[in-house]
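Good morning N.,

You mentioned wanting to compare the apo and holo forms, so I went ahead and generated the holo version with calcium ion. This is what I fed in:
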Amino acid sequence: MGSKRDKPSRVTSDVDLTADGKQFGYLSVPHSRNDSAWGSVRVPIVVAKNGDGPTVFFTGGNHGDEYEGPIALLKLARSLEASQITGRVIIMPALNLPAVRAGTRLSPIDGLNMNRVFPGVREGTVTQMIADYVYTTILPHADVVVDIHAGGKTMSLVPCAVMHQLEDKALMDHTMAALLAFGAPFGLVLQELDSEGMLDTAVEDMGKVFISTELGGGGTVTTDTVGIADSGIRNILCHFGLIDETVITPQARGLPATRLMHTPDEDCLVVANDNGLYEILVDLGREVAAGTPIGRIHFYETPERAPSLYKARRSGMIVHRHVPGLIQAGDCLALIATDYDYS
Ligand code: CA
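and this is what came out, ligand included:
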């Protein structure tokens, strides 16, 4: 995509992906600026490798205001020893480091969304160069990619592992098995509004297993959502044979099995048409019928004006809610999912 892929990435790294053992290192992304003439952005990377086996690539901080991924992956990076695995684990706990540093979804350096710039641009901005390095240098080594997201400051979701409906049946089966092994309370087969430029799409187009998550949101974590990330990461390593132990299912922990859901049509999405104050009428995780009022938008500058009422356009469960009290036309107010029978 306009990138001179015959030349190596402009990003350099001090880790050797082919060496056995555990290494902590950095990608150095050139970033000359007024306060640092020869400066770079250093994005952490951790590699643990032992012998021959599959490679799992874990990413967190793709969006900088989602915290389960970075927290769980920092714990994994410190606790995992190469001798405990067969294969290779590559961890980038803060993929869009400038965004993580700022606590924002997008990078404050170039205003870009990491999850819309893949496959990256070699001669691009910081976010585009990180994506280019990941695409050209890490993804070719990976068999499985797990990108840990949450809703960020403006969204909250029921804790779920996420995959897409894939045309390749064998890849769909392998990905579904990984999604169920992750062991989140919900498994969501998501219809993306805009899948171009996503890390997801880049990996899927390589024919590799990709799963992501949406573990809560609101720009913070809970004990439950971090726990789901911790156990999901471990389960993925067991499922793909890097750790010689069995997957611990939700049932084994006395919890219900992963409830598989999907968003089959655009009626699942409820979008705001007004600017105002958002009053939620049905909480996250509740079931609704088509036509159920789920929210109101109040007009604080015109008290005589009645609030607008938003109704569910189909039956199902509320799996996403808008978080801030303020809402604007075009904001996604709610997402409704229905049970998915995968066979
Ligand atoms: Ca996200």
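The domain at 12-262 is CATH 3.40.630.10 (Aminopeptidase).

Happy to go through it together on a call whenever suits you.

Best,
F.
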